[in-house]
Every structure is written in C-alpha cells, then in structure tokens.
C-alpha cells in the first residue's frame, strides 16, 4: 500500500520540488532539495548539473562524486546526465525519529579544479504509521464501591508520525459505566482517562469490556485499538441469606446422641471470604446450648444430649450465619420431640402389711400400690401381674391403684415368707416392664400340736435300781415358732383315777427326761405303762399324748428255794429204798423254785456230798435221784446225800438240800426199826402220805389233760369241717370258751390249758409265784403279757423254752384272775 500510495505522490513531489541553486564562488555553494519519504529506490530527485550550471559532459570529465558527511549515502548520481536518484527507500521515522524537519546532508565533489558543493535534502513525513497501544489488552481492577467520577488513567498510544500525522484523539466503545477524557502532557503523547459514570456492582456485572481507539490526524486518518478489561472487585456488601425463614424438624425422643436434627443453609452473594459462612447457635438459652450443637461449616444441627419428651416437647433454636466480612443473618429451627415409649411403668408401693398371720382369710389385703407411666400418649396402658405362681393375686381397685390380696391359704410352717415380684408392663411398642419385689413375712399362729418322735416309747429299768435314776426321755417337736413351739411335758393321770404311777415315775417338764422314783422289783412288777402329755406354749395350747411302757429287767436276786425235801425240820427227810431195787431205781426228786425269771430261775442240781458217791446220782435238769447200781449187803443202811441246787444268774446263787436215804429190805421193816415213835411218827407219816397223794394227783391230772386236749382237738376238727364259722383264731389254746370243757374241768381250775401247763412245767414252781403275785393297782393293758413273751423267747436253751412257755401261760391265768 505504501508503494501504491507512493507512485502518485512521486509526480506531485517532483512537481512541488523547489530547487535551490546557490552558486558560490570558490568552495561554498549549497543546493537544497525536498523529497517525500518512502520514495522507491531509483526515484529521481533532481538534475544536479543543471542546478549547478555545469555542462553535462563536464561532470564525467571532472569525475564528480557524492561524498557523505555522515555515515551513509542515501542518493546516487548519474554522471552523464547529472540526475540525482534515491539510492534506497527513505523512511523518515528511522532516519530522523521525532526530529522535524528531517534533513539529509552530502557533498558533490568535482576534480580539475577541485570543487565541492553542499547538498541538503529534506525528507517530508507522510502518514504511514497508525497509532498503536503497547498493551493491547490491559486489565483494570476497580472495587465495586468506587465513587462516581473517579478517574483511571490509561496508557497512551504511540504514533511514529509527526505533526498532524501523529496521535490526535482517543475514542471509547459505548458502555454504561465509563466515558473517556483525553488529556495532554507537556511532553509526550496525549493520553486518556476513564471516568466512572455509574456505580459498579460486582454481583450485577463482575467485569466490563471496553475498547479504546487512538486516532491520528492524517488524511485519511489511521487508528489503533486496545481492549480494556475492567474487573470489578468484590466488597462485602451482602448479608448471608438463609434458604428458609424457619426450619422444622421432628425428632424421636430416643434418638441417639449426635443424631442429625436438621441442616440449615445460608448463602452470600459476595465473593471469597465474604461469602464464607459460619453457623452458630448464638443468643440461645442455656438449655438449648446443652441439648444441641451445630456444625459451623455444614450447618448440621445435631443432638448433644438425649431428649426427653416428658420434660420438653418443643425447642425453638435460633441460628446465626456469619460471613467472612462479619455480616450475619438469623433463622430458626423448630424442633418437635416425638414421644417414644421409653419409660417403664413405675410401681409405688404405699403400704405392705407384713408380717401376715398365717391364718389370714382369703382376699386379705397384703399390699397397696399405684402404677404410673410417664409416657403419656404412647404405651400408657398397663398390665400388672405376679411373676411367679404365689398364693397372692393382684386386684385393680381404681384407675392406677392396685391391691395385692391373698388367694390361697397360707402356712408358715410350709413357707415362712414370700418375695412377691410384681411385674408392671405397658403396651409399647416396645413393651417395657418393671419388677418390684415386696417381701411379706408370715407370722406364726399356734396351729401345730407338739408331735412325739415315736408313736410309743419302751423304756427299760433294771430291778433293784437306785431311786430317782434316769431311765430315758421322751421328746416332742412343735413346728410352730417361739412360744407356740415351747413344749412342756407332764404325766397324765390314769383313766381309772389311781395316781400310783406318780409314785414310780417323775418327768422333767422341760426336757421330757423320765426318772424312776422307787426301787423296782421285777418279782413284784414286770412292766407298766403310762401316758405322757406334751403341751405347747401358745395362746390356745395344743397338746398330744404318747404311751410310755417301762419294762423292768430281772436281776438274779433270789436264791433257789428247796420245796422238797423240807429242810427246816430237825430231822432230815428220809426216803426208803428197798435193797432189792435195781440200778436206775427212782429214789426221790428234789423240788426247788427260784423267784427270778429266765436264766436266773433256770435251776440245775448237783450231788455235792454222799455217804457213797457211787451209789446215787442226781439228774442235772430235774433233780431226780436214782440208784446207780444194785444195792449190796455191805452198803450201810443210812445213806446221807447233800444236793446243791444252783440257778444260772450272774453271779449264780445256790442252796443245798440234805436228805437221808434208808436202805430197807421191806418198806415196813426199816420204818419200824428206825422210827422213833416218841417224837415224829405222826408228822413223818402224814408228810409221806401227802407226798404220795400229791404225786398221784399230779399223774392223774396229767393223764386227764392229755385226754382233754385230744378230745378238744378232735372236736375242733369236726366243728371246723361242719360250719366254717367261728373265728377259730380268736381262740388260742388257752382261750377256749369255758362251756366247751367245763364238764371235764377240775372244780378249782376252770380251763383245760391250765392243767396242761402245770403238768408240763414239772419241777418248775414259778406258776405259784404268779398265782399269788401282787400288783400295783393301776391298770395293765392286755398287751403286757405279749411283751413278756418276747423277752422270754430270747432265752437260749431248750429246757428254758418249756419253762418260759409255762410262765407265759400262767401270766394269762393270772390276768384272768384279776
Ligand atoms: C476527539 O474525538 C471526540 C469524539 O470522539 C470529539 O468529540 C472531539 O472533539 C475530538 N477532539 C479533537 C481535538 O479533535
Ligand atoms: C470480556 O472479554 C474477555 C476476553 O477478552 C471475555 O472472556 C469476557 O467474557 C468478556 N466479558 C464480557 C462481559 O463480555
Ligand atoms: C454427646 O456427644 C458429644 C460429642 O459428639 C459429647 O460431647 C457429649 O458429651 C455427648 N453427650 C452425652 C450425654 O453422652
Ligand atoms: C427376699 O429376698 C431377699 C434378698 O434377696 C432375701 O434376703 C430374703 O431372705 C428373701 N425373703 C424371702 C422370704 O425369701
Ligand atoms: C408385648 O405385649 C404383647 C401384648 O401385650 C405381647 O403379645 C407380646 O408378646 C409382648 N412382647 C414382649 C416382648 O413381651
Ligand atoms: C417248815 O417250812 C414250811 C414251809 O416253809 C412250813 O410250812 C412248816 O411249818 C415248817 N416246819 C417247821 C417245823 O418249822
């Protein structure tokens, strides 16, 4: 374009070129030319030869040349024609910068004679440079609060051209905020200022793009632009804004610590720290500050303490949001606590009657209690029952009051107290329950009589005891308590009213120890029984009785007594033995009795002394004296024997009996010979007669009883076979109905068995004792005979067995007599 614009210029410049021709004589002559810049290389400037007034040929001849004064030659001389050309394109801005006018100097030097001419070429400016901004996109930061009319100087644009071609004016793109004000400096180019016309608002428009244009004065004018970016800086001119006016939250009261209640959010239109919001629970009462906490960054409101619906149902929390610039806003969180069944029912016992008498009737009130549940709206319905199966039951009285009453009868001896667990349960969900324990003790009532440890007691005491000896004790237990269980013992008067037992026995009323008051005599009394009464100490005393039987044990305190032969006469008894008697002839029999019983009365007979020991022998068991051999003529007529009778007691007691035996040829002879008629004839005679009679009576009775027994036996069998009726076992041998045997009976003894026994005992004499025994007068029950049977049966030997049976039966006889 520069070229295109330069071509038409060329003619004009040449046309307007005015030429100075100064011909100076000598050396000094100056030629001045003007030339426009940007001329193409080789452009014609002027004809120097003509201007110097020289002939054309002369230039060649004189060797004209151009000599630069400075460092560079911008022109060229055509010597033949004398034309001056532009050597290369001239740029005024680079040759002279801002200097105006711009003049180039050189000389034309001619030889022969040496001559020089000074040439000045002035280069004219053309508008070939547009104004330009060094920074095409400058950034301007302006706070949004800047007051109107503030000025912001901008960088100036550069235009290399000078004069009118240089920078002339600035223009600004249309905008709402700024206008431009162009200003001059004394030195340097013009510059512009932005003037604020309208308040900046970052929140409305954060930046403004402006275009500034610099214009020069050339024709046509040239311009350059720059884009100004105005960034509006933030100022904290906005308060935070909550997303809602009021936040609402519903929280179950059993929410865990730290549970989220609500999240509040606030925003701020500002920027940077000005929009950084912190949340806080400012200006809240202490209770709320204790219960809630807020995350200052996220705005999460959380629990920091368990809620209790029953205490507080709603909370009104004030929340504050503050931005980095210190501006703050407020909002509210309304928290509604939701009721949850979290309170178990409470049992309040108002009264308990303990101890409770064991004879309390059914439906007796034991305790009164009320039940309360703090969960008002949920789970408020309550059921109440006992955990275990006890003789009590819960009865509702009114509203939430209940009573505990007895449902079954109580027995202190069975269960002395109860721990009653009352369960109160609400209906939830979830079901909650409480257990309350009421301790009820059962107090004693005297409802148990003393009870003896045994149904009956059998005590033994050895005869000849020392008086007041301890013989045993009875003991009774009472299941009751305290006084009601304090047992005292006493002897009960016999029914017959005879108080003789008190003479024999005494009892310690405290401990039931029994003492024999008197010396017992077995031969007098073998056993007796009495009744002990145990009484407790209750208000209404109860008592029980027990039978105590005392069995007297035998002692060997009686010597055997010789019944035959009589030992108290002056003359010993004489027995006659015919000399013709064979060996084994029964001479006589020693009869002895012992007052004791059992072993103590079991007698044995021994030959102690004899005139001739080889002639007689004594049967150990029955005392029969027999000859051992044939009597010889040499044997003296008078034989003296001493017999020892001994019982088997410990120690054994014994008696001796002596008797004389006369060996006679006939029964009359010795009697006549030795009989002393003056003294004892009648007495001996009668004695012998009695003996013979008694022996024959005994033999007769024996035979009779055997016969009777046989007949009875037969009769019984027949009867049994015929009728099957009569309860035979009621009649043992000794209990036959009297009429059956009455006819055969001996007048003095009414029963057949008596005969049997008397004969069976043989030498035993104990039956006599029983016939004449004396008894204490209190009644002896029938059982006493059986006891003795047991005692005797324990005796060891066979011979004893006979005897014991005898005494047993005779006891019955004696009982019958009583
Ligand atoms: C500069 O330009 C503005 C319009 O852009 C004009 O109003 C003003 O007169 C001009 N100044 C000069 C000195 O030309
Ligand atoms: C201003 O100009 C810049 C780039 O020069 C651009 O990114 C921005 O979006 C413009 N802003 C406006 C409001 O036009
Ligand atoms: C609840 O938790 C917070 C911490 O999260 C603790 O500071 C506070 O003591 C807790 N409260 C209870 C009652 O445990
Ligand atoms: C009741 O329970 C208490 C405590 O366990 C105990 O000491 C007491 O003996 C119990 N009472 C009864 C009557 O069981
Ligand atoms: C709660 O009570 C209901 C009815 O009262 C009963 O069916 C349920 O078994 C109970 N749950 C518990 C855990 O006791
Ligand atoms: C001998 O004793 C018996 C009985 O003991 C008696 O009956 C009798 O009279 C006594 N005779 C003499 C002489 O003492």
Q: Helices and strands in order, then pairings?
A:
Layout: H1 2-16, E1 30-36, E2 44-47, H2 48-52, H3 56-62, E3 65-68, E4 75-78, E5 83-86, H4 92-96, E6 102-110, E7 115-124, E8 139-143, E9 151-153, E10 167-172, E11 178-183, E12 191-196, E13 207-216, E14 223-233, E15 241-242, E16 246-252, E17 260-263, E18 266-267, E19 278-280, H5 286-291, E20 292-294, E21 300-303, E22 314-322, E23 328-338, E24 346-352, E25 356-357, E26 365-372, E27 382-386, E28 392-396, E29 401-406, E30 417-426, E31 433-443, E32 451-452, E33 456-462, E34 469-473, E35 476-477, E36 488-492, H6 501-504, E37 505-507, E38 513-516, E39 527-535, E40 543-553, E41 560-564, E42 574-578, E43 586-589, E44 591-594, E45 604-610, E46 616-618, E47 624-627, E48 638-646, E49 654-664, H7 668-674, H8 681-723, H9 738-741, H10 752-761, H11 766-771, H12 784-793, H13 798-817
Parallel strand pairs: 1-7, 8-14, 16-23, 25-31, 33-40, 42-49
Antiparallel strand pairs: 2-5, 3-6, 4-5, 6-7, 9-12, 10-13, 11-12, 13-14, 15-18, 17-21, 19-22, 20-21, 22-23, 24-26, 26-29, 27-30, 28-29, 30-31, 32-35, 34-38, 36-39, 37-38, 39-40, 41-44, 43-47, 45-48, 46-47, 48-49
Helix pairs in contact: 8-10, 10-13, 12-13
The structure holds 2-acetamido-2-deoxy-beta-D-glucopyranose (6 copies).
CATH superfamily of the largest domain: Cadherins
SS strand fraction: 35-45%
Number of helices: 13
Which whole number gives the mean pLDDT?
Answer: 78
Do you know the CATH topology of the largest domain?
Immunoglobulin-like
Intertermini distance: 186 Å
Task: Give the low-pLDDT segments.
Answer: 1-27, 670-682, 723-818
Q: For the CA atoms, what is the radius of gyration? A: 84 Å
| Sheet/helix structural class | alpha+beta
């Amino acid at each position: 374009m520069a070229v295109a614009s330069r071509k038409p210029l060329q003619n004009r410049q040449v046309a307007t070129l005015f030429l100075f021709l100064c011909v100076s004589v000598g050396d000094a002559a100056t030629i001045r030319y003007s030339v426009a810049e940007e001329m193409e290389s080789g452009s014609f400037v002027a004809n120097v030869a003509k201007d110097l007034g020289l002939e054309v040929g002369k230039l060649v001849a004189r060797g004209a040349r151009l000599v630069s004064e400075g460092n560079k030659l911008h022109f060229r001389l055509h010597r033949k024609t004398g034309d001056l050309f532009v050597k290369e394109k001239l740029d005024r801005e680079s040759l002279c910068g801002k200097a105006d006018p711009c003049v180039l100097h050189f000389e034309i030097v001619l030889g022969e004679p040496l001559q020089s001419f000074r040439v000045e070429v002035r280069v004219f400016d053309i508008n070939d440079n547009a104004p330009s901004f060094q920074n095409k996109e400058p950034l301007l930061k302006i706070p949004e609060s800047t007051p109107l009319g503030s000025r912001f100087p901008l960088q100036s644009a550069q235009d290399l051209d000078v004069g009118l071609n240089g920078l002339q004016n600035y223009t600004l793109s249309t905008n709402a905020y700024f206008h431009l004000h162009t200003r001059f400096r004394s030195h340097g180019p013009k510059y512009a200022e932005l003037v604020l016309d309208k308040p900046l608002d970052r929140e409305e428009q954060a930046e403004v793009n402006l275009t500034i244009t610099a214009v020069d004065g050339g024709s046509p004018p040239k311009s350059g632009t720059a884009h100004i970016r105005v960034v509006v800086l933030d100022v904290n001119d906005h308060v935070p804004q909550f997303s809602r006016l009021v936040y609402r939250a519903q929280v179950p009261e059993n929410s865990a610590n730290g549970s989220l209640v609500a999240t509040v959010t606030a925003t701020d239109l500002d920027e940077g720290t000005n929009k950084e919001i912190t949340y806080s629970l400012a200006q809240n009462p202490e209770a709320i500050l204790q219960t809630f906490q807020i995350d200052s960054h996220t705005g999460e409101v959380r629990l920091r303490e368990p809620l209790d619906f029953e205490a507080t149902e709603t909370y009104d929390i004030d929340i504050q949001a503050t931005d980095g610039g210190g501006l703050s806003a407020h909002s509210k969180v309304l928290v509604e606590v939701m009721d949850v069944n979290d309170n178990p029912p409470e049992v309040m016992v108002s009264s308990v009657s303990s101890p409770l008498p064991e004879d309390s009737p059914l439906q007796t009130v034991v305790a009164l209690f009320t039940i309360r549940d703090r969960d008002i709206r949920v789970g408020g319905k309550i059921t109440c029952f006992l955990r275990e199966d006890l003789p009590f039951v819960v009865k509702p009285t009114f509203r939430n009051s209940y009573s505990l009453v007895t449902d079954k009868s109580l027995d202190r001896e069975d269960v002395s107290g109860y721990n009653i667990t009352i369960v109160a349960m609400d209906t939830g969900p979830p079901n909650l329950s409480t257990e309350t324990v009421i301790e009820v003790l059962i107090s004693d009532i005297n409802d148990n009589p003393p009870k003896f440890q045994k149904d009956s007691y059998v005590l033994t005491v050895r005869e000849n005891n020392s008086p007041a000896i301890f013989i045993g004790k009875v003991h009774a237990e009472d299941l009751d308590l305290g006084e009601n269980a304090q047992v005292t013992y006493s002897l009960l008067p016999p029914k017959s009213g005879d108080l003789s037992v008190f003479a024999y026995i005494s009892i310690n009323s405290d401990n039931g120890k029994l003492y024999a008051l008197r010396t017992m005599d077995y031969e007098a009394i073998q056993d007796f029984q009495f009744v002990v009464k145990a009484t407790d100490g209750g208000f209404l005393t109860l008592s029980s009785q027990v039978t105590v039987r005392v069995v007297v044990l035998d002692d060997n305190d009686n010597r055997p007594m010789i019944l035959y032969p009589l030992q108290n006469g002056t003359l010993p008894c004489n027995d006659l033995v015919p000399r013709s008697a064979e060996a084994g002839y029964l001479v006589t029999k020693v009869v002895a009795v012992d007052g004791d019983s059992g072993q103590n009365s079991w007698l044995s007979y021994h030959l102690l002394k004899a005139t001739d020991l080889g002639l007689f022998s004594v049967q150990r068991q029955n005392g029969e004296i027999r000859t051992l051999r044939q009597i010889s003529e040499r044997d003296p007529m008078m034989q003296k024997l001493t017999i020892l009778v001994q019982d088997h007691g410990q120690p054994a007691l014994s008696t001796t009996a002596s008797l004389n035996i006369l060996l006679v040829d006939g029964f009359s002879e010795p009697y006549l010979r030795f009989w002393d008629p003056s003294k004892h004839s009648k007495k001996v005679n009668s004695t012998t007669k009695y003996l013979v009679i008694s022996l024959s009576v005994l033999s007769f009775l024996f035979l009779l009883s055997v016969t009777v027994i046989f007949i009875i036996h037969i009769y019984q069998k027949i009867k049994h076979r015929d009728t099957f009726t009569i309860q035979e076992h009621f009649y043992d041998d000794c209990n036959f109905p009297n009429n059956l045997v009455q006819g055969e009976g001996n007048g003095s003894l009414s029963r057949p068995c008596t005969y049997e026994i008397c004969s069976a005992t043989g030498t035993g004499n104990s039956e006599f004792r029983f016939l004449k025994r004396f008894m204490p007068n209190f009644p002896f029950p029938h059982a006493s005979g059986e006891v003795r049977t047991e005692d005797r049966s324990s005796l060891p030997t066979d011979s004893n067995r006979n005897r014991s049976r005898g005494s047993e039966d005779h006891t019955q006889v004696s009982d019958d007599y009583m």
